[in-house]
Amino acid sequence: MTTTQADIDREILAGQADGPQENQPRLDYPPYRSSILRHPTKALHPIDPEGVELWAPCFGHSDVDDAEADLTIQHAGEPQGSRIVVAGRVVDGAGRPVPHQLVEIWQANAAGRYAHLRDQHPAPLDPNFTGQGRALTDADGYYRFQTIQPGPYPWRNHLNAWRPAHIHFSLFGTDFTQRLITQMYFPGDPLFALDPIFQSVTDPKAREMLIAKYDHDLTSPEYALGYRWDIVLTGDHRTPLDTEEPS
Amino acid sequence: MSAAPGQTVGPFFHLGLPYEKGNELVPPGRAGAIRLHGRVLDGSGVPVPDAMIEIWQASPDGKILQQPGSLRRDGWTFTGFGRAATDADGHYWFSTLAPGPTEPGKPAFFAVAVFARGLLDRLFTRAYLPAPKDLDALLESVPEDRRGTLITEADDTGVVFDIHLQGPHETVFLSFPRHRGIWA
């Protein structure tokens, strides 16, 4: 029997009722069908980080060119779609900025198509848009990308399944335990309630942390709309007063 | 302050994350180079062809490095960070150096992060070098029948570390205090 959106909606509702609201995604979340055989069934093992886990890999200007933060200039012509700026600050669980750290993004084009062999959605590829970018945060933890508003796109989780428009974000903190890969969404997307990946986070306040805010101060006249998205990582396990260099 | 939730890397992460020589912390075949490799398997034992593994490790003399250059390898600088996507058979590999213990009497390990389509958030684990002489807090606290999931096995080219996301051989995955809202 084909699974419909109504079936998924019922499963999402049941998932919200059957336990406490959680601010991280449930790894065991059957409405997202691909998770069924790919989540651990045993509890995560609690342990204090040690050695390298207390430090993060270091990236610098030898790794990332400034131009990589502009996804609209990677080809000879202008990409199709609405130009946007996405900017914000990466902070740790104590609200401290994460300086000089790597931020990586990838996304679909304006038509909702990824420049990826496995994306068979019959929407046009854009020869002027790859959809991949990198940046380093500055000394105060700020990053800024210029890109194209991605389109929503269909997927095969169930019949007539569509993902809300999003940009994938990959982040590092100051220790390895803060490593985060997530997705940034756009305000007011009508697909939020229908999407099992977004709804795998059962706490609505936590889901809101994934939604950028329109920010007119980031909008540039006659050029691009601006979205602000601040990213909070988990806490750093080194103490704030620890100025020790790595051994 | 609560942290932003993770979300799956999805099926198209190859567009954004893997990069040239990401899995070559040192050039393959260089003196001292070992291969760290294995497969990522789902709960039915089926290889996962769209997973990504990151390793973060100390140098052979146990130093924790703060050396840029992981994304554009110059062939000489050892940074301690690597990234590899699995292939169609769920196999990944790194060319690297064996890490040393970061403290005397501690077993040496690679810190490992696992990402995949179908996996809603990253998982952390450790890959210890084969037959550790000393146990640390993690190895001591894991029941003996699951301890082996954290320990690599030697082969002709280096060490093997299979990652079972689920099932009878499920890998031990970790949670750290500040993931659980515990403020030390």
From TrEMBL, chain B:
Which keywords does this chain's UniProt record carry? Dioxygenase, Oxidoreductase
Q: Which Pfam families match?
A: Dioxygenase_C
NCBIfam families recorded for this chain?
Answer: protocat_alph (TIGR02423)
Similarity comment: family membership: Belongs to the intradiol ring-cleavage dioxygenase family.
Q: Name one GO molecular function term.
A: protocatechuate 3,4-dioxygenase activity
Q: Which InterPro entries match?
A: Intradiol_dOase_C, Intradiol_dOase_core, Intradiol_RC_Dioxygenase, Protocat_dOase_a
Domain of life from the UniProt record: Bacteria
Q: Which Gene3D superfamilies match?
A: Aromatic compound dioxygenase
Q: What is this protein called?
A: Protocatechuate 3,4-dioxygenase subunit alpha
According to the entry, every stretch annotated as the Intradiol ring-cleavage dioxygenases domain falls at 33-102
